[in-house]
């Protein structure tokens, strides 16, 4: 066996060759687990046989002192591509170009968020870096090993999930016979306001709190507070996640403007230098409400500058943008024993709700209808952020992991916040909306979430609105006209943007053409994107 796999030059035996073989076996198994998303126990089951195979092949004798020859690095090309793919899968749960390109264009620092993400990424990179080192040690000065690696390079490139991901995106984006989104787009500015007194709006986005969490067999009592809320109002149960709506700002824009975030970037012609505002030609919910006399505030526990939120708030007629920079000093920021923030995003959700209560109280004294939109942090991946008051709540802490505790904590705080508003009379003539911003990214319960059909949360509470459910196939864009109708607006054809009101019996675009074809159309679209960004088409 050693002769078959022999070296081109003598390779003195070293005591450490078994250690290198063991590291090689462990790293290969670790990478396979990440690629296949299998049970981590595979390491314990798979290590002994793989280690013995490596020894039998004589890999250990290659961990010697030979000099690397040209070509030893070729297998590292597909391995690097695999590494990039795995990092995104492990950190975000999916590999998608749209959010990657979008976030590269905007400010990403927020109270240490990037440091936290960088540490997470570094941990995911570690097995690949070890694999790089192990391969170099195995192939250095050994031409047959290098030839073997060179032969593997092409199939590893062809079968690489990174290659499949990029290839699928390009094929879908440039496929023929695509759906023309502009033909299905209804001008939201045609919405007419209700007669008489206009209702107020309290709009709560719960970070990653998808409807999938309502399954008690998998997640216990996590969503019980939201279930109690939906039993009193309207709930849409069929809202799937479409392309370019799967991160926080994209979810906000889809549900407020009736369009996915058709962003600008490397694959969408890099015309960002032609615009100075976020989707400046889109007519969003805030634009319509501001037109009709509302006072509008947007509140976020994190910094508004993070990932372009401030640009959206400024471009679409919110009168106030309130983020960590504006309210952070008023609330405590617990730190760890190492001096880092417990919540690197900003303030705890309980503090956001307190600040929102004060804002609503102040706005209620005015003579205008008001709208307050807020977005929480608690359910954010990878483990969630538990508000400090919940750390002593035995009911919350009885759940089996930090992610479920964080979701349950924020759900309880949400219910308590709404009850407090009701008891103080602040919900009179007010529509309350509770929804997820997008499906959860990778967290401690991601395997369970993926095991069943996933849907977003969308609940409307309004006096006179009978408890009701809509199971219609929908996406986040359909919540936009639904919100307008809940506020009493009249819509031509009961639609706005790409959405159709879920309070109507009309079929949504996703229901007409299916989610897959809609996603392909979103990826291939330029015409609607240029219209909403105010970009002159190429001549």
Domain count: 2
By secondary-structure content and strand pairing, the structural class works out as alpha/beta
Biggest beta sheet summary: 8 strands, mixed
Supply the CATH superfamily name of the largest domain.
Alkaline Phosphatase, subunit A
Output mean pLDDT. Answer: 83
Beta-strand residue percentage: 5-15%
Rg: 26 Å
CATH topology value of the largest domain: Alkaline Phosphatase, subunit A
| Order of strands across the main sheet | 4-3-5-1-6-7-2-8
User: How many beta strands in the DSSP annotation?
Assistant: 10
How helical, in percent, are the residues?
Answer: 40-55%
Distance between the termini: 66 Å
CATH architecture of the largest domain: 3-Layer(aba) Sandwich
Low-confidence segments, given as residue ranges, are: 1-13, 266-274
Number of contiguous helices: 21
- Shape from CA axes? globular
CATH class of the largest domain: Alpha Beta
Would you write up a description of this structure?
The protein is α/β, with parallel strands linked by helices and 539 residues long. 43% of the residues lie in helices and 8% in strands. The strands form two sheets. An eight-stranded mixed sheet has the order 4-3-5-1-6-7-2-8, sandwiched between helices. A two-stranded antiparallel ribbon has the order 9-10. Helix 12 links the parallel strand 3 and strand 4. It starts with 16 loop residues before the first helix and ends in a 6-residue tail after the last helix. The N terminus is likely disordered.
């Amino acid at each position: 066996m050693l002769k078959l796999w022999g070296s081109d030059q003598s390779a003195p035996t070293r005591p450490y060759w078994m250690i290198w073989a063991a590291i090689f076996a462990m790293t290969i198994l670790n990478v396979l687990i990440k690629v296949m998303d299998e049970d981590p126990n595979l390491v314990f089951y798979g290590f002994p046989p793989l280690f013995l195979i490596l020894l039998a092949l004589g890999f250990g004798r290659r961990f010697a002192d030979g000099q690397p020859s040209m070509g030893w690095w070729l297998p590292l090309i597909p391995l690097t591509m695999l590494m990039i793919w795995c990092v995104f899968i492990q950190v975000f749960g999916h590999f998608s170009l749209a959010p990657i390109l979008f976030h590269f264009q905007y400010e990403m620092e927020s109270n240490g968020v990037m440091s936290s993400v960088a540490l997470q990424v570094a941990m995911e990179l570690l097995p690949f870096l070890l694999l790089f080192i192990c391969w170099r040690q195995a192939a250095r000065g050994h031409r047959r090993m290098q030839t073997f690696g060179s032969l593997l390079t092409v199939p590893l490139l062809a079968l690489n999930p990174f290659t499949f991901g990029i290839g699928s995106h390009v094929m879908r984006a440039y496929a023929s016979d695509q759906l023309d989104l502009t033909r299905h787009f209804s001008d939201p500015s045609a919405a007419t306001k209700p007669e008489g007194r206009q209702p107020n709006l309290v709009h709560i986005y719960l970070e990653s709190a998808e409807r999938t969490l309502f399954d008690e067999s998998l997640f216990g009592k996590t969503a019980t507070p939201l279930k109690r809320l939906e039993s009193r109002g309207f709930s849409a149960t069929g809202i799937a996640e479409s392309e370019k709506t799967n991160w926080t700002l994209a979810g906000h824009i889809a549900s407020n403007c009736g369009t996915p975030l058709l962003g600008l970037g490397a694959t969408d012609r890099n015309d960002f230098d032609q615009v100075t505002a976020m989707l400046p030609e889109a007519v969003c919910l805030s634009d319509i409400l501001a037109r009709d006399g509302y006072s509008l505030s947007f509140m976020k526990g994190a910094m508004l500058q993070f990932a372009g939120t401030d640009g959206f708030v400024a471009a679409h007629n919110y009168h106030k943008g309130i983020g960590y920079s504006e309210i952070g000093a008023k609330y405590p920021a617990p730190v760890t024993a190492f001096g880092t923030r417990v919540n690197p995003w900003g303030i705890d959700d309980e503090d956001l709700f307190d600040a929102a209560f004060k804002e609503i109280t102040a706005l209620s004294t005015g003579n205008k209808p008001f709208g307050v939109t807020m977005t929480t942090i608690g359910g954010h991946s990878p483990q969630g952020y538990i508000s400090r008051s919940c750390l002593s709540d035995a009911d919350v802490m009885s759940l089996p992991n930090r992610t479920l505790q964080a979701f349950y904590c924020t759900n309880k705080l949400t219910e308590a916040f709404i009850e407090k508003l009701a008891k103080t009379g602040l919900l009179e003539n007010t529509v309350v909306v509770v929804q997820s911003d997008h499906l959860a990214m990778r967290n401690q319960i991601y395997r369970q979430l993926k095991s069943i059909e996933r849907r977003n949360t969308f609940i409307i509470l309004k006096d006179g609105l009978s408890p009701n459910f809509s199971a219609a196939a929908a996406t986040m864009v359909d919540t936009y006209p639904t919100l307008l109708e809940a506020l009493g607006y009249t819509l031509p054809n009961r639609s706005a943007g790409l959405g159709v009101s879920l309070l109507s019996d009309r079929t949504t675009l996703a229901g007409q053409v299916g989610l897959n074809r809609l996603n392909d159309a979103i990826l291939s679209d330029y015409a609607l994107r240029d219209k909403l960004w105010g970009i002159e088409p190429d001549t």
